[in-house]
Amino acid sequence: MAFRLPVVADPEIPEGAEVSASGRLPRWLKRPIPSGNANHMTQGLLDELRLETVCDNAKCPNRMECYSQQTATFMILGNVCTRPCGFCAVHRGRPPELPESDEPERVAEAAHRLGLKHVVITSVTRDDLPDGGADHFYRCVIAVREKTGATTEVLTPDFVHCKPALERVIQARPDVFNHNIETVPSLYLKVRPGSRYFSSLELLKNAKQVNKNIFTKSGIMVGLGESRDEILQVMDDLKAADVDFLTIGQYLQPSTKHYPLDRYYTPEEFEDLG
């Protein structure tokens, strides 16, 4: 999972300056750690309901900011992924059996007690399951809507081994169907082994064809060694697939064992891409 940090310009950084991956984190990416009881309340609720979040499992540096605002991105289907993506901090390997059957109800209860108006549900990739976990997504969306009335967003795997899975997820009528393209095609074999760029594009395109009223969304990381032209090509490809929303975020290397960071993008470069 990419870390998508908010970007705030720092007046001490020269306009247009590039910052390499060596040295300290650039000033514009530094944030104070939020304090207060809301952090503990959110974490305590997640622990009580035995729920996983991508915030914790992906080691997102923004998780305390989100928890302090009493929000989180729920991660269903366990915390072990079947894909060995080089950028991701989520554990990989052979997942255990599916979580307890009441996980959808526990997700809905957490969303209700947090007072969420928009609920984001993601998962690890489960190539070991016949439907890739699609029915579990379906049940979670239905449970959240019935419990809270909130809008829902699903951030799914590519379901490359199970084509009917997409239709099952869309049957739950999430408001937003999200699948991250993550990076440019030339980096896929190193950054996303086991995944295919054009399969992800096809998934996003098909989502809109299954339900023309659904919003589709994707996201990419920058700072992995891609060129600007490659980023623009991804934008063109997503536009051709009728994708409505795109997030672009700075890649941060979770550990020295993960795919190396090439460089930090400046606030001016983000403005240009925007």
What descriptors fit this protein?
two-stranded antiparallel sheet; disordered N terminus; 10 helices; globular
- Overall 3D form: globular
Number of strand elements: 11
Q: How large a portion of the residues is in β-strands, by DSSP E?
A: 5-15%
Structural class designation: alpha/beta
Helices and strands, in order, run as EHEHHEEEHEHEHEHHEHEEH
SSE order and pairing:
Layout: E1 19-20, H1 37-48, E2 52-53, H2 54-57, H3 63-68, E3 74-76, E4 80-81, E5 91-92, H4 103-114, E6 118-123, H5 134-148, E7 151-155, H6 164-171, E8 176-178, H7 188-191, H8 197-210, E9 215-222, H9 228-240, E10 245-250, E11 263-264, H10 267-273
Parallel strand pairs: 3-6, 4-5, 6-7, 7-8, 8-9, 9-10
Antiparallel strand pairs: 1-11, 2-3
Helix pairs in contact: 4-5, 5-6
Quick recap of the structure?
The chain has 274 residues and is an alpha/beta fold.
Mind explaining what this structure looks like?
The chain is of the alpha/beta class and 274 residues long. 35% of the residues lie in helices and 15% in strands. It has ten helices and eleven strands. The strands form three sheets. A seven-stranded mixed β-sheet has the order 2-3-6-7-8-9-10. A two-stranded antiparallel sheet has the order 1-11. Strands 4-5 form a two-stranded parallel ribbon. Helix 4 runs parallel beside helix 5 and helix 5 (134-148) runs parallel beside helix 6 (164-171). The longest helix has 15 residues, at 134-148.
